[in-house]
Backbone:
């Protein structure tokens, strides 16, 4: 288990983050936690951000790991009728799936550097 590098307080509850800002205990995730972590990174979560976070959370729950980028792009196209990875990078320039995991309370993907 990751060691806490920082502790946040959300709704009177302690939420531990690792040294990269990911939740140490994913069961502590709430939408309010996501908003707080994103705000600390200077990100205001809009409808498309939430769609991506929820898509990644659902995928992780079903398959036990986050989706690859090509799977995420295919789902984005299905939702929007068109699109590419550029659209996802506009949401989260530092890595769409990685940051959706971070804000969605999921562990950092193994395949992220």
Residues:
């Amino acid at each position: 288990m990751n060691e806490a590098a920082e502790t946040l307080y959300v709704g009177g509850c302690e939420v531990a983050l690792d040294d990269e800002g990911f939740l140490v205990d994913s069961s502590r995730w709430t939408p309010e936690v996501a908003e707080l972590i994103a705000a600390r990174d200077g990100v205001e979560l809009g409808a498309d951000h939430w769609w991506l976070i929820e898509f990644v959370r659902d995928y992780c729950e079903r398959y036990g790991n986050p989706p690859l980028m090509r799977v995420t792009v295919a789902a984005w196209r299905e939702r929007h009728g068109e699109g590419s990875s550029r659209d996802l990078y506009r949401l989260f320039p530092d890595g769409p799936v990685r940051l959706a995991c971070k804000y969605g309370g999921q562990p950092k993907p193994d395949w992220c550097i």
